[in-house]
Amino acid sequence: MLRLAVSTAYLVEGLHTALQTPAGRRLGHPILATVQARPGVGVDIGYFEDVERAARPIAGVTGTAWAAPLPGNQPTWQSFRIESHQIPVREVALDMAWFTAESFQLFAPRPTAGRMFGGADRNCPVAVVNLEAAQELFGADTVGRTIQDFAGLPVEIVGVVGMQKAMRSAKRSRPTIYYNYTDRTAPPCPVARARFRATVVSELAAAELDANVVSPSYFDAMGLSLLAGQGFDHPVPGECRIGVIDQEAAGLYFAGQAVGAAVIDGRGRRTRIVGIVHSPPLGPFQQRVEPAIYFPTSQDAPSTMTLIVGARDGSGPILTKMLTDLRRRIESVPGRGPAPIVIKTLEAHLTQTALAPLRIAAMIVGPSAATALASFCRETIESK
To answer: Is 22 helix (H, G, I), strand (E, B) or coil?
Structure first.
């Protein structure tokens, strides 16, 4: 009976240890606050910044970080095409022209593939091409690819455009690349012929990655150490979309050489990989770490996100006060959407998701251990 009691006690202690995550030990006693920005044309990233500023002065807060899907949730799988930075290149000759306000009368209202120019392109060199140029470049897979111009600078192809039916002629158009000129008043330069460097035509490998949107502080808060490249702390002026992957994705899809490579999603959006992080398991309960990609909140913030708040003390009265103060401060921030604010501890969240089987096991084994110990004590007393 003594052996049973001791073994059961060790089992209970092991289960409680498994319920403790590296993130929890790093952040102290993490609190999660899920909020929604007011719906609009675009997500107001300023609302999330205001929520974070409101949370930081609360007594006992040790740090903050943002995430969309939370640790312990089911993976948010997204399909990508992989473009290595080691593919051989070739030269392609294209006409260079300028897309002006008058160009809308020439081209079909919707691009054949991809999209037209947007406000987010001001700091990123992008272009659209006509159907003839797409055939010269990468065919149906042209959107999301990059070519190098005569100065050696990369240009991302974001769309393929076709002429309006009334403007088509029997003569085939020359392969042409169009740069955005819609926001300028000076007359555009004439069409010029230029040579570009593009990778050879090849089928890109497919990848399935667990996608998340996080703040720069997320990696440090969750204990994701940087193995190569950089995180999101120091954005590069003129940089297009960027992402960071974990070591599982780097080994599975990039043979460890991921920095400088790119992924292209189903919408043709290209993301250059700037860093690789080591993503430790949440705890002994997690059998494997999934291949994952992280996008910065500055470029991909969804309308609903969760603020991870590190708390120095997780004792009852102090934790209760922190939860109350956090809710009060967040409710005072303007710009909130209709969804209710959800505030809970990381432990409570994991209990409902990834750690649920362990929590159930602990609840079952705990009473068993108490029963075994009580029986042992009763037998000992009766024997005397």
So the answer is: helix
Residue 338 is assigned to a structural domain of this protein: no
Q: At what angle do helices 45-55 and 316-331 cross, to 10 degrees?
A: 140
Q: Map tokens 């910065």 to a residue.
A: 296
The count of domains in the chain is 3
Cβ contacts of 364 within 8 Å, gap of 6 or more = none
Considering only CA atoms, give the Rg of the chain: 27
DSSP-derived secondary structure letter, 102: G
Average pLDDT (195-208) is 94
Residues 83/262, Cβ–Cβ less than 8 Å: yes
Chain Cα centroid distance, residue 290? 14
Would residue 182 count as lying in a domain? yes
pLDDT digits (tens, 9 = 90+) for 48-81: 999 999 999 999 999 999 999 887 788 899 999 9
**How far apart, in whole angstroms, are the C-alpha atoms of residue 357 and residue 18?**
11
Cα of 373 vs its chain's centroid, Å: 49
Q: Which distant-in-sequence residues (6+ apart) come within 8 Å of 313 by Cβ?
A: 28, 29, 60, 319
What is the share, in percent, of the chain residues with pLDDT greater than 70?
79
Residue 144 sits in which domain range?
A: 89-199
Q: Is the dihedral of CA 135, 138, 144, 148 positive or negative?
A: negative
**Which tokens go with 11?**
């089992």
Same domain, 213 and 249: yes
Q: What pTM was computed for the model? A: 0.83
Is residue 45 situated within a structural domain?
no
Q: How far is residue 64's CA from residue 257's CA, in Å, rounded to a whole number?
A: 31
